[in-house]
């Protein structure tokens, strides 16, 4: 009986998180109330408070179910030290784009973070983490591009720092534009040529 109760509680929690994803995506974080999330989940507001302290707590739990694109790439880059540096970075960027296209939950939460996440108390922690991940991404990219420069593989007109910031801007732009309208291009099929277009311009 205890196991069943725990399983039911976990199922209810997941039901609320799924409803929150849909509501935040449709109405934005600021425009979504806990009552609206409860209604969408066909549950009571009391059920929401049984599992979450407030909207901020629910929002944090929703984000923790996935790894936002830049955060995930940062995590991989911390451990990727083998191989030709430009190839390492290029492969990771292609992976990041395909993951965004192929994983619906990853895509929904990323859309909320980038386009539906107003700077309000409920979302500020997540936004701050995104900003931190972006800075760490740039720093790790700079290290990889410095290795490429030492090997004579980086275009001589670029410094590692400039190349890193350019790549961040390019990837962030692709993420943002795709999430605004996923139908505008096939990110799964186009990941390789999109990334190749950037790296052909910075390598030698």
The global form is: elongated
- Number of continuous helical runs: 10
Please provide the count of β strands. 0
Order of helices and strands: HHHHHHHHHH
User: What does the main sheet amount to?
Assistant: none
Compute the average pLDDT: 86
- Backbone structural class: mainly alpha
Q: What fraction of the residues are assigned to beta strands by DSSP?
A: under 5%
Query: What is the gyration radius calculated from CA atoms?
Result: 20 Å
CA-to-CA gap between the ends? Answer: 65 Å
Low-confidence blocks of residues: none
Helix content: over 70%
Textual characterization of the structure:
The structure is a single chain. This protein is mostly helical and 204 residues long. 76% of the residues lie in helices and 0% in strands. It is built from ten helices and no strands. It has helices spanning 2-27, 34-40, 45-51, 55-64, 69-79, 85-102, 104-115, 124-150, 160-180, 187-202. Helix 5 (69-79) packs across helix 8 and helix 6 packs antiparallel against helix 8 (124-150). The longest helix has 27 residues, at 124-150. The radius of gyration is 20 Å and the shape is elongated. The model has no long low-confidence stretch (mean pLDDT 86).
